[in-house]
Amino acid sequence: MSVHKDQDRIEKVVELAAPVPRVWRALTDYKEFGTWFRVRLDNPFEVGTTTTGTMTSPGHESMPWVSVTEELEHQRLFAFSWPPSAIDPDTVYSEEAKVRVEFRLEPTANGTRLTITEAGFQQFPEAKRLEVLRSNEQGWEIQARNVAAHVVG
């Protein structure tokens, strides 16, 4: 998918050869999530709670993870947000600024359709936005492969 500086969201649809309960567990169990996403999380995902940790993926090993779990709708929707300052510490953002990530699950004849949406890119300064969009788009390509391999492995 190509990205442009005026877009506010990234959406990725992944067909997974695993049933919804298996995919749900991979997404919402913080230890399983950490395995495929390559992040060491300190605590579980709970609505309204901040989850912290450290990235473990090559090239990002010391990057901190900070997210707030916004929704857990059993086997249908998992959503969290993260502060834009996490990847752009040189810009001052309001305390309300956030990028939201949603994982939506739908059963299919062959397993699960997972729709990953990340939104909130308009709040990044225009000079940095395209770079952030491209980086995150590439990141979701990698993470989609990671979760697919994890749930069938």
Please explain how this structure is put together.
With 153 residues, the chain is α+β, with helices and mostly antiparallel strands. Helix content is 29%, strand content 34%. The protein contains 3 helices and 7 strands. Strands 1-7-6-5-4-3-2 form a 7-stranded antiparallel beta sheet. Helix 1 packs across helix 2. The protein is globular and about 45 Å long. The relative contact order is 0.24.
Quick rundown:
With 153 residues, this protein is of the alpha+beta class. The protein has helices spanning 20-28, 30-37, 126-152, and strands at 9-16, 39-41, 50-55, 64-73, 77-82, 99-108, 111-119.
Major sheet, described briefly?
A: 7 strands, antiparallel
| Fraction in helix | 25-40%
Report the C-alpha radius of gyration, rounded: 15 Å
Number of strands: 7
Query: What is the residue-averaged pLDDT?
Result: 94
Q: What structural class is derived from the secondary structure elements?
A: alpha+beta
- Overall form: globular
Placed side by side, the strands forming the largest sheet appear as 1-7-6-5-4-3-2
> How widely separated are the two ends?
27 Å
Give the low-pLDDT segments. none
What is the strand content? 25-35%
Give the topology string: H per helix, E per strand: EHHEEEEEEH
SS element count, helices? 3
Topology diagram in text:
Elements: E1 9-16, H1 20-28, H2 30-37, E2 39-41, E3 50-55, E4 64-73, E5 77-82, E6 99-108, E7 111-119, H3 126-152
Antiparallel strand pairs: 1-7, 2-3, 3-4, 4-5, 5-6, 6-7
Helix pairs in contact: 1-2
